[in-house]
Amino acid sequence: MELELGQARQTFITESQELLQEMESALLTLEADPACQDAINSLFRSAHTIKGSSGVLGIETVEKFTHHVENLLSKMREGEILACKENIDLLLQCRDHISTLTALAADGIEVLTPEIEASGAALAARLGQWLAAPVEKKEEKQAKPPESRHEGPSSATDAWHISIRFGQDVLRSGMDPVSFISYLSKMGEVVSITTLFDSMPQASDMDPESCYLGFEIDLRSDFDKAAIEGVFEFVREDAVIHILPPFSRVASYVELIQGLPEDMLLLGEILVKGGALTKAELEEALRRQQDAEGGQEKHRIGEMLVAGGSLHPEIVDAALDKQKKNQSIAGREASTVRIDAAKLDALVDLVGELVISGANIDQHSQRMSDAALQESASVMLRLVEEIRESTMKIRMVPIGETFSRFRRVVRDISRELGKDMDLVISGGDTELDKTVIEKIGDPLMHLVRNSADHGVEGPEERRAAGKDPKGTIRLNACHDAGSIIIEVSDDGKGLNKEKITAKAVAAGLIQPGQQLTDQEVFRLIFEPGFSTAEAVTKFSGRGVGMDVVKRNIEALRGTIDIDSAPGKGTTVRIRLPLTMAIIDGFMVGVGGSPYIIPLDMVMECVELPASEKSAADRRSYINLRGAVLPFVRLREFFAESGERTGHENIVIVQYGGTRIGLVVDELFGEVQTVIKSLGRVYREIKGISGATILGNGQVALILDVPRLMQAVEASLLAMSA
Hints:
Four Helix Bundle (Hemerythrin (Met), subunit A), 47% helix, elongated
């Protein structure tokens, strides 16, 4: 029992985080469009779900506070409280407080600190003030009665319309039709009564104990449909009754239907849950549908209810839309499964071991020269590769959710600093390994804060510079040659190279008068403690962060670059590998030692011409089809002492638009590479990003191509100096 409760609690924590993110997105949408009813409904559903789930699990701190928030959202959904700026601010603070309470519940903390308790009490008090404030009812638009959309009875006034045809045995049962009308008058104002005699026979055929009357009644009342229907409970089996709501209630019914949970309900069930239809009316309509002749297409339940005068067609249309939406959501849910991330990581590890074992079996089959065994091994390797690709696809998730979290960051900084900024997101559907997604969030957060705080100017400064007073920060993601590129850019004032250089000289990072390229100047901001901010703010300016950003990016085997133009803005470009687990590699040999190059970076392989060998020994580049190609000898770079082969090959690799050559002794070809992290002692070796185990049990090092490129660039600069 405790195990099941713990699992349920963990599920609640996970779902609450998603719901809280939905609340934040909906609130930001509502801030831009206060009339967005979908956002209000989404807010209410999220708060209602969190409250209900926390109540079931006994998390009283979350349940009690969320109940206050739900009350405010209920009033907002009914139009009694407007989605004004003050309300949005309050609800965002409440959302953050619920997030804090949920995090404490995840850690098993039930007793709140005085600070958190005081914060919650203050927010609850503000919620109470809004709930007690005078009603700010939105201007209601009176729905116009449809002229030709339904054939049932209609009311000329904005009142409930009751159409009743008493059965002939009503009088024999001791019921007086007039008594029902008298009771209706106690529930409201009977606006009009029309007595129908169309069932009245000729006097000679009339039975004095039979009832032949019918009534069309307009009733103005605040009671709901179920209560009005209850008046006729004792004659329902002996009468035909239709109750049509007032036109002013159509919008309310439509709103209630739209706000229903995304459950798989039939049309009639949606109408009953929304209050527009009673269970008795639904049962009667279903009975008539079954008794009707012909196919179901000719006797749809919605058309029968409208034609029978039980519903307005607008309400049926809303229910049909809700049903379609529910079916779409259910279809998406049915095609996805929520699993623990640890189980997925374990699966990837097992697939990695399967790849290594498959390579080992393949080598044994090749050595034994058994054709049947080789064929079996080939089939197995193909299946293992398909399993590997499928498993890696499972780990790939869109980066858009991570991007969306920064909308709140930009909003808060804008309000705090008096700036006007927009966050524009593109490429949100670009997929990336979930491990990389988890680790890239904090670096991106710092970059977005820097752009909002230091990059984008205030409105007056932008006007003076001839710019739009509203600044723009852009987040973009795209794929490129087996990598993902993430760009954080702004249209602000750009980086000040003179100020950066002066700060670097003062800090002893460069010598006075030293000539640096623009890229070298911009890279100085990644030095520890480096900052050119004139004032420290709550968001940035302490010189802590950019060095951490670079270190975190490099830990993911990525690179980070900066482009900036004075007065036009700054772009920070991050390049990351798509996955951190299993990749396709190209194996080469240097001095008898195997090395792996990521296959996505390999462009071509050429043999080092004999005519170039003597010259190449003295320089670090060759002439490749009329273009200069810098290269690095891996034998010398890694101090390999193995025997030299008779000839050398150059593997040409490309990364970030730059090409270099890697001089190796042997080319072995493509291999599936399971990336293994190196021990702490070997992590700082330049040019190596990890290791893998080959089929014969030998360890091969995986080359870090970006670092090798930096080494080549540094050697070329040294030679030119």
